[in-house]
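not sure who needs this but someone in the group chat was asking about Histone-lysine N-methyltransferase EHMT2-like from Sinocyclocheilus anshuiensis so here u go. i didnt clean anything up, its just raw.
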Amino acid sequence: SPSTSSSASGRAKMSVCGPGSKSTPSSSSSLSSSALSSASPPAKVHRARKTMNRPPFPQVLSFVIDAETERLEELPLCSCRMEAPRVDGFSARSNRTCMAIESINGELVGCTKVIVKGETMRPSSRVSLMVLCETHRSHMVKHHCCPGCGYFCLSGTFLECCPDVHITHRFHRGCVSVLGCGRSRGGVGVGLLFCPHCGEDASEAREVTIPPAVPSSGSNVVTASASSTTTTPSARMHCRGGGVEDVVALGDGGVDSVGPSLVLPNGKPVCPSALPPGDRRAALQRAILTQDTERRKKLRFHPRQLCPAAKQGEAQRVLLMLMEGIDPSYQSDSQNRRCALHAAAQRGLLEVCYLLIQNHVLDVVSIMLCCECVSAESSVFVVQEEDGSTGLHHAAKLGNLEVVMLLLSTGQVDINAQDSGGWTPIIWAAEHRHIDVIRALLNRGANVTLRDKEMNVCLHWASFSGSAEIAELILNAGCPLSSVNLHGDTPLHIAAREGYIDCVTLFLSRGADIDIMNKEGDTPLSLARSDTPVWVALQINRKLRRGIANRIVRTERIICSDVAQGYENVPIPCVNGVDDEGCPSDYKYIAENCETSTMNIDRNITHLQHCSCTDDCSSSNCLCGQLSIRCWYDKDHRLLQEFNKIEPPLIFECNMACSCHKACKNRVVQAGIKVRLQLYRTEKMGWGVRALQDIPQGSFICEYVGELISDAEADVREDDSYLFDLDNKDGEVYCIDARYYGNISRFINHLCDPNIIPVRVFMLHQDLRFPRIAFFSSRDIFTGQELGFDYGDRFWDIKSKYFTCQCGSEKCKHSAEAIALEQSRLARLEVCPETAGEAGLPVLGPS
């Protein structure tokens, strides 16, 4: 159908003469830990004052032995005004993008501006070297970057130390320098607090709040949920060993946005900011703050103590065990071969799960149920129990979305892992009606077509749970509604047996078969209890389906009495007996060609050649007939039998300058539509046009009407399905586009065996660039037959890439079968050109 659009590079145009016619990604800021930690070792900083020799990543001294020792402790000062030498390749590794990160009330915003200078800077030796844009370089020099965490303090809540009226040192409450850091049992530091920039007493620092500005195009928000993936807040913070990096005071006001962190023995960081704000993050912070004190007690642990500690949510004990090198994948017989991650996931203990995942090291030799590592750098693992279940199974079963998301974010769990019963995590979530977990699993690509040991798919379990909302999600994910299990039950069988009307209604609306029988010979209707809503719904559906099946022809609906709205001589009704599509309304019906830009058509009456006939222009002396070679109309206003239908000549009808009567026989097209036509919905080709009366051969049908445009304009239009080339051989070429303005002819489909032909006609003007396109019947057309003309080979050269002809004619040249045969024939010619020559087929060769 010409109503089908395409985006072909060429223009698909219909023509009168048939065959033979013409035819930046943007780079984003990389905030990954690998990019930020790839700098060379920090440059040594020489200060005017005498300092202690420190490692590149100093740890805060945690305990004071006596007052003399406290006086000997040296404060680590900032290096905000120092510029390290240029590091070869460092700017390239950062994509020449600023590496600054701003901390705004717990939300991290990364800058994506282009850097100008390649020299690196950092606020202290705790923080990795950074290349910065000019804006953040100026803020670094002004001491607006926190030396403790490396985040810029440009908006949000933070502390300010003012050693001078014109100087402000900004830092976070949790990043103060601590001397004599004795800690209470609650983990709150009680030592002396100093500004991490200048070493002044931090007790005099004031808390300030600067409202955040509207994010610009040069910033990239890094949310807390993404912190556990490639863009981690800890990417700029690296401490060697297991010491506490920062100290934070946990007051009644909640948890500070930037808290303490440490590095586990396997080299992975533990950062509370990886968890969402709340009790879980606070518990992890307290565990980090107290672990130094507890480790000094030199406690000894056995691996079998890890699982009970994880099960009870004792994050502090779990952390101590991990720091002592306890294997987190240890499975104890007393715990039914369950590892600590299973226990924590089942209880929804987010902070414990995070610790275990960060420290998980796979040992395929000692753990029989772990799968092998994928590569030397990444240990992608699935720890399974004897029954094959994983931590993700338990978290999905309990509906703990936080734990599910945490496990999925690691990329180390098999989302489609099947336990001993063949059940996947999404099956467990479907059975227990955890819709949020199901959405999360589907977003990560969970397979809903996997079958359990009894051949049930996920939809069977959703039906068993009675949740129509979950069932719809699973159906939309591609789970087949017709799936049968080992007993021959479909999801409709299960919903009918359990009496879930919402699921039954959903399945019926999706076309579920109510007559299918399981292996016991039961249909869904026979399984439903009598006189229940489910039984009634199934009965009604069966009667409706039988009524539809017994109907021979779908009843046609008259959806418009006249699509022409009175602009034609006869009304043109619109009917639909195929679907529920309404009358086309995406165009403006017009009876004559229109222009949306100046075409400069010569309509000057003095330029018209005209006749001086006083009869009906039937004589050979008629000048208009002579311009057409002869008058091609008979007395019934039909084309003569000898009219060339393959290469139709131009027809010049009498015009307004002629002396003849308006009823002369050489005025046919300008008289308008006289035959009764109907717009109707076809089975395969959208809308079409058919005759409501018998139409003799040579009768005028209608004119192809639309918007007159230039060929250049046609080449830039997106939808080229309604273009009709006027085939002017001299000068610029023009087209008629019926996409937005047109008449009934815009709905006429292509027929490989056409029954109408297009003819170029001139009447109101004789400008050869703009002929009128008139359709005449090429043979007798009977009532009810569809009208169609040949769109031309150049149309199908473009459109055959997107759809094929559906005319159904025995002479069809553009169907899928015909195209395949033609391609096969051409392939044979390429292989055996000498055979083609013997058969008399044309063979192309060098000229």
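also The chain has a mean pLDDT of 77. if thats useful
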